[in-house]
Design a protein that fits this description.
The complex is a heterotrimer. By secondary structure, chain A is α/β, with parallel strands linked by helices. Helices cover about 35% and strands about 25% of the residues of chain A. Chain A has two domains: about 200 residues, Peroxisomal Thiolase, Chain A, domain 1 (3-Layer(aba) Sandwich); about 140 residues, Peroxisomal Thiolase, Chain A, domain 1. Chain A has a nine-stranded mixed sheet, with helices on both faces. A three-stranded mixed sheet of chain A has the order 3-2-14. In chain A, helix 1 packs across helix 2, helix 3 packs across helix 4 and helix 6 packs across helix 7. In chain C, a hairpin with a 5-residue loop joins strand 1 and strand 2. Chain C is of the alpha+beta class. In chain C, the strands form two sheets. In chain C, strands 6-5-4-7-8 form a five-stranded antiparallel sheet. Chain C has a three-stranded antiparallel sheet with strand order 2-1-3. Chain C has one domain. Classes of the chains: A alpha/beta, B alpha/beta, C alpha+beta.
């Protein structure tokens, strides 16, 4: 039986870089059919990190927004876990750098930190780890981050979707009389099945994927079965949710998974953000969650199911509180970042992503 | 107080001198000055050598010892460093040694060898003249620093891009009359505007070049100097220091240390700046000359653009500036520049400047800057031991 | 591969490679921590040892990062370690609390900037020392939209 939790999201925030490249510009450069690509992927444009941005810098900007909304002293946060497929170092924790920059745990650095990896669900895995520590009251507040500057090889299908962005969440225990949570995390559970759908070896620049195999046996299997298990264990029905967020590797997959689960277009309205951003990997479903939180009304129920190749899914049931409205007024929203954009051409794009490790 | 006179001077050619090493330049410069003074190297009591980058570009520190070794002497000899003001600050050490009674005859050198390393490495090395942590590490270059001053100045005083270009055009013209200059070609305003941007809004032709060269002077105490044929007198010397970084400065459109150094030098010389008729200023970048002539009080603040358009800063104009071609066209071997400026003043005051001779030159001023204005030295020289100023 | 690495980083000067020099300055570089004179209240960034009022007593002070552009340039001929980032803008920023600092201006080309533009701090990568060296980070500033 899935345990009912008593924790909440006190701060949430995201960041996407300023620059964009249009799908048609990539298609033209690769001599591919623009219309076919657009129909297949349902991605219009994706984010491009500037040469001086990486998962750490993106994570920090997302955390700044989360800290503004949480309005607590960074020194009170005692754990950071960060998930990414593009940690700048193979050995040197991004979470430690971020903690230092933000003053987490105070001057003495009284906090624990570690980086996670599980393809695109590294961020939600980090969220589960923080949830555990807060629920157990080992810490008062924890910070979970999912951020990526993912890479797609020139000419490969992933080139159209691999994007950059990140999200951050500050979690605290719910205390009677001291309500701080904008949205409560009620339940979380996961499924993990070893699957060779998509991977990247050490020292390789680009991942390898098994084409159509990444669909049925990997993405769809995990998204649907994990979501279904959550529904079974909680007794909730799919129509009980006002908002649904699914992992978004492209614009097509989440719509197909939604159909399989009986999720409506209305429920996906704020949760699916991939069409104008691309797949931000560890930030993918978490960016959708931030967008939902930035637009939801009080007392609404949210379902999130992430997916990480290799494979696994993390599912969450979340409910907004009355405090959500005032938190929405603070910090920069995804909408603001979406509006402040600048297009680059294919050559500029390749120059900019050359800097990604 | 003891007056100090200049009894000899010499300089190497300035340019990309592939065949000459740091030591070769130092040797040539020293020997030329000694020859010009018609003294023996054994008459020298003390040696100061201005240089900024020998450790960095040549792996050679301890230049004081090299200078003495060249001359086969064992007198006190030391290297002096103050970034691009190294030469002038070395001169001040020589002047002070004589005034303190520690030496009768002092040799002062300025030397720099910059072309043994790649241009980019030289550019990074030069950032040692600014704040390494807060300017250099941010990816700034010296051109970038002066470019920021240029933008601020142009914004405040409405100086145009074309007016700014007049500095380099004039200095190149002057250099055609200077045999030792790095460049002997004339350039136009269009060429300056169309050359590649190094740091917006400054272009390649706004920037002084990477140059090798050396210059030397021989200083002597009054009783000795007055016995020479045409000694040139140090009437006053002033130095002022300011913040290492540009952002720490009180102004982005002037160099306050120039004004302070000039006041100190002119007060010692007991003379007003209006009596100066030959001036060498530190035009490391075109904007630097613009700010210098205003900071020195030679022209009113903000008027540089108009005055340059009227041609007044040419060597035959009312306010002749940089008759040798300045740093831009004569070249800028960092440590040598301050001494080369003195060499030019000496030539002018002795009437030995040939085609670039300024008529009735009798009071000369040198202005030498380290960094973006962190060290400034202003020296005043005269043909007559007692100037007619007071 | 070792020799390749030496090739790639040889042109970056030792002091720019040094992680230790920059680690020492993390509080300033990463968090804009300056100090404030206990006697006259003047705020400094970077930290000062001796105040203009001659006091030597200071307290740590966190600057907000809000500021405006006093002047700027776009570097087109850059030092080796920044060669891949070129061109980039650098400016002198006047912070709200008084101090002026030099910093890169992120995500902007020189035509987009004006003297007086309000800016806010962003955390960005400065440069990596080859493929095996440290990655240097710090604060740049970005126009407030």
């Amino acid at each position: 039986m899935v345990k009912r939790l008593n924790i909440g999201i006190t701060g949430f925030g995201c960041y996407i870089p300023r620059f964009r490249i249009r799908t048609e510009d990539i298609a033209v450069a690769n001599n591919q059919n623009v219309d076919l690509i657009k129909t297949a992927l349902l991605i219009n444009e994706k984010t491009v990190p500037n040469k001086d941005e990486d998962s750490i810098s993106i994570g920090i900007e997302a955390c700044k927004n989360a800290l503004l909304r949480a309005s607590i002293q960074p020194s009170r946060i005692k754990a950071i876990y960060m998930g990414s497929e593009s940690h700048p170092y193979a050995v040197k924790a991004s979470s430690a750098v971020i903690g230092g920059v933000l003053g987490i745990g105070g001057e003495e650095g009284n906090f624990t930190a570690a980086d996670t990896e599980f393809a695109c669900k590294a961020g939600t895995a980090a969220l589960q780890m923080i949830a555990g520590q807060v629920e157990a009251e080992m810490i008062d507040y924890g910070l979970a981050i999912g951020a990526d500057t993912s890479q797609g090889a020139p000419g490969d299908a992933l080139e159209y979707s691999a994007a950059a962005g990140g999200a951050a969440f500050i979690i605290g225990k719910n205390k009677k009389g001291k309500e701080e949570s904008a949205a409560n995390i009620l339940y979380t559970l996961s499924k993990t099945i070893d699957t060779p759908d998509f991977w990247r070896r050490n020292n390789e620049k680009y991942p390898t994927h098994m084409g159509r195999f990444t669909g049925e046996e990997a993405y769809f299997k995990h998204i649907t079965s994990t979501t279904q298990t959550m529904l079974d264990e909680t007794g909730l029905k799919i129509y009980d949710f006002d908002h649904v967020i699914l992992h978004q590797p492209n614009g097509k997959f989440p719509l197909k998974a939604a159909k399989m689960l009986g999720i409506t277009k209305e429920q996906l309205k704020f949760g699916i953000v991939v069409h104008e951003i691309g797949n931000t990997y560890s930030g993918s479903s978490l960016l959708g969650l931030v967008n939902v939180l930035e637009n939801a009304l009080p007392g609404q129920r949210i379902l999130l199911t992430s997916y990480g190749s290799g494979s696994g899914s993390d599912c969450f049931v979340i409910e907004t509180t009355d405090l959500i409205t005032e938190k929405q007024r603070i910090g920069k929203k995804l909408l603001n970042y979406l509006q402040n954009k600048q297009y680059v051409n294919y050559n500029q794009y390749r120059q900019m992503v050359k800097m990604i490790h | 107080m003891e007056k100090v006179g200049i009894i000899g001077t010499g300089a190497t050619k300035f340019g990309e001198l592939w065949k000459q090493s740091l030591r070769d330049l130092l040797a040539e410069s020293q020997l030329k000055a000694i020859e010009d003074a018609k003294i023996s190297e054994r008459d020298i009591d003390m040696i100061f050598t201005g240089n900024m980058c020998s450790s960095d570009f040549s792996g050679q520190s301890h230049l004081g010892s090299m200078a003495a070794e060249i001359l086969n002497v064992n007198v006190p000899s030391v290297r002096v460093e103050a970034a691009c003001a190294s030469g002038s600050v070395a001169l001040r050490q020589g002047i002070q040694a004589i005034k303190a009674g520690e030496a009768d005859i002092v040799l002062v050198n300025g030397v720099e060898k910059m072309t043994d390393v790649q241009t980019r490495q030289a550019t990074t090395g030069l950032m040692g003249a600014g704040d390494e942590e807060w300017e250099g590490f941010n990816g700034l270059t010296f051109c970038g620093l002066y470019a920021m001053m240029a933008r601020a100045y142009m914004h405040k005083y409405r100086l145009t891009r074309e007016q700014l270009a007049l500095v380099s055009v004039k200095n190149h013209k002057h250099a055609t009359f200077n045999p030792i200059a790095h460049y002997h070609n004339e350039i136009t305003v269009d060429q300056v505007l169309n050359s590649s941007i190094i740091a917006d809004p400054l272009t390649l032709l706004d920037c002084s070049p990477i140059t090798d060269g050396g210059a030397s002077v021989i200083l002597a105490k009054e009783n000795i100097a007055k016995k020479f044929e045409s000694p040139i007198w140090v009437l006053g010397s002033g130095q002022a220091n300011d913040t290492l970084s540009l952002h720490g400065r009180k102004s982005l459109t002037e160099i306050p240390a120039t004004t302070h150094a000039a006041q100190r030098a002119l007060m010692q010389a007991k003379i007003g700046v209006d009596k100066v008729n030959v001036t060498e200023v530190h035009d490391c970048f075109s904007i630097a000359e613009v700010m210098a002539i205003e900071d020195l009080g030679l022209i009113p603040r903000g008027e540089a653009g108009r005055i340059m358009e009227e041609g007044q800063t040419y060597f035959d104009g009312k306010v002749p500036i940089n008759s040798c071609g300045g740093l831009k066209a004569c070249g800028h071997p960092i440590g040598a520049t301050g001494i080369k400026q003195v060499w030019e003043i000496v030539k002018q005051l002795r009437n030995e400047a040939g085609k670039r001779q300024i008529g009735n030159a009798d009071i000369g001023l040198t202005h030498n800057v380290g960094g973006t204005g962190s060290t400034v030295v202003v020296n005043v020289f005269g043909r007559d031991r007692e100037n007619k100023g007071y | 591969m070792f020799l390749d690495e030496i090739e790639r980083t040889k042109d970056i000067k030792m002091h720019r490679q040094s992680p230790i020099m920059r680690w020492r300055k993390y509080p300033e570089r990463y968090r804009l921590e300056g100090n404030r004179c206990n006697l006259c209240g003047r705020i400094y960034f970077p930290k000062k040892e001796l105040c203009e009022c001659s006091s030597r007593e200071f307290s740590a002070f966190q600057l907000s990062g809000k500021g405006k552009i006093l002047t700027y340039t776009e570097i087109k001929s850059s030092p080796e370690e920044f060669s891949e980032m070129t061109p980039y803008c650098v400016g002198i920023i006047e912070l709200a609390e008084g101090p002026k600092i030099t910093a890169q201006i992120a995500d902007a080309s020189v035509d987009e900037l004006n003297i007086g533009d309000p800016v806010e701090p962003v955390f960005r990568k400065f440069f990596a020392v080859g493929d095996s060296g440290i990655i240097h980070y710090g604060i740049k500033f970005k126009k407030i939209e």
